[in-house]
Predict the 3D structure of the following.
Amino acid sequence: MQLTLYDKIWNEHLVHQQKDGTALLFVDRHLIHEVTSPQAFEGLRNSNRKVRQPNLTLAVVDHNIPTTDRSKGIKDEDSKIQVETLDKNCNEFGIQLFGMNDKRQGIVHIVGPEQGFTQPGTVIVCGDSHTATHGAFGSLAFGIGTSEVEHVLATQTLVQKKAKNFRINVNGKLAIGVTSKDVVLQIIGKIGTAGGTGSVIEYAGSLISDLSVEQRMTICNMTIEGGARAGLIEPDQKIFNYLKDRPMSPKNESWDRALEYWNTLKTDKDAKFDKEINLTAEDIAPMVTWGTSPQDVVTIDGKIPNPENESNIDRKNSIDRSLKYMGLKADVAVQDIKIDKVFIGSCTNGRIEDLREAAKILKDKKKAAHVHGMVVPGSGLVKEQAEQEGLDKIFIKSGFEWREPGCSMCLAMNADKLKPEERCASTSNRNFEGRQGRGGRTHLVSPGMAAAAAISGNLDDVRKYNN
Amino acid sequence: MMLESIITKMKKFNSLKSIPAYLPIVNIDTDMIIPKQFLKTIKRTGLGKNLFFEMRYDDNGKEIKEFTLNNEPYNNSKILITGNNFGCGSSREHAPWALLDFGITCVISSSYADIFYNNCFKNGILPIILNEEKIKELSEYSKRKEEISIDLNNQKIIYGNNEIKFEIDSFKKKCLLEGLDDISLSLEKLDQILSYEKKIMNKKPWIFND
Ligand code: SF4
């Protein structure tokens, strides 16, 4: 039978399967962080269980830590307890942890690939929905809840039912100023936030192969915003080159054997997909979200939608509600929307290529006086690399703050947040009500678009700055 | 065989009767169910008072009168009827923990986000999927403040003189009815896990960093 890449990884990891299809799947890589793990460890302790494979588990602090000077520790008492709890748990159960002052610390989905912990053909889980990011390496990677974190810690397996196969083909070439962030926003706008529910999405087509490894990560990262369980891409030579000589990548003879296996990870030519859609790269323009759901997208030269044009009553109410929250009027040109803040960072766009893209636009330019701008590198290593390339200087010169790595204002659990009614051009992944701070208004954009917005003080078209 | 007491950890789901609360909003995300400032806890309990925090309280922390769950009898509802794609967004299990702590053990919607849906079952919450038409019909009972009943064993919702069947995965149903603990069930297959690991150590040794 002809199989998809997802089918193959699934079959390879079956430990047991019941008649009704409920399966026990082996987990090769388990990432944990401070927010969704304390109750799982508590559960282990209460039932006197151990971590089955501490070596297949890697912990990092990211969600809840300050991005300003860390020498004085964490001010917020609850955050501090959570971070200390992870430290204590990792010690007790023998798990490797990248703590707050470790250079390798960063956002869990940036750290995994960077260390070579993320590998093709593996099943990777984490108590975080953006685990889909790792699918860019041809792994089956998805987010789980805390009870499941406990289950994986105790058994190194997970109870799962197979999802459907969904393929999205993107062919052609992107215009200048258009990035993989725009591609994935366009996809979510097209399929909707529930469009992928119950499916695993494979991204394919000539554009996807042309993208760099980091650009692919941006697409897989936001797969969850389309409701899919996971997103993945066939691994190729670019992936193998990226992984070669990373600290946790296979070495020597193991590398050769791994490579041989990784080369087999391909969807068969005539494999059947339950659903398939096609996009043309040339049709994609720089995108921005206008509402409070990632599916609320419009091109940068577009207008805010008018709820009166909507015939479906639920949809009309939902647009009304979003516009009210966002403080926007129907039919206004997107480029006339004034912004207060710019956030560059997150597991979607906090890697070195993202910072380069933003810095290229900001070089020798100043941000608008009323805008507050912040760059939060995705990891300590990204930060170090950026500083070696002098990107930090470009950001600082144009008026941005250059911060320590973490999730920061992507979810605003630490001190980095929007005030009520503040409007932000953000390279993160969610524009939900209150996501970046209570009453805060988020417009999701690519790093280049965020930089363009910072300069003009309005949402703006990056193509004006690209030459 | 393992002892019954080890395998049952979660509260068993029995039949349920309550006036349902109706929240006709689509795409209610996990940030709306429980905002991030409450994720700093290291416990599973105590989140109920912060359920739907942003919709429920004003800037001064006072209850907003118009919000359904702030009013009798809905502040005691065990059943929540809601718009489609409920629980989208993050994987935070704090969302079902908050619902449970508030007293809600059954949600009715036309669709759910995958991770949230799974998380419900781990906490003894029954998420029922019905079509929009049936949801409208049931929501009338909320407006009229009349009770409806859930019979999980027979997969039925009983309201007035009517009843509707609902679908549910048979294994998930069994776990809810019996309050079974997944981890104990999986550890019963320890032999299979061991032999799988052994196979992988030979076939793909790099997985174990060898
Ligand atoms: S950067 Fe944002 S989306 Fe990514 S893991 Fe952190 S909080 Fe989640």
